[in-house]
Write a structure and sequence with these properties.
79 residues
Length: 79
Amino acid sequence: MTTAIADAAEFCTLLEEELGFHLTPQDLDRPLDDLPEWDSVHLLRLVTVVESRTGRRLPVAGLLEASTLRQMYEVVVRT
């Protein structure tokens, strides 16, 4: 069964449960450079988790262009 990510709060919950990030929807606007724990491994884990949860492939190029988690969230919900 596929499950969409309903809103930014649910995206934050996913980031917390699956990646260990403790964020609020306001934190989504912080530049990725301001998240010292963020790295390419987290991006790959995010792709895997979202694709598994939604049953859809994500455009990784769009995620790589994102400079904030909100921009990544927007890629996720547009897919």
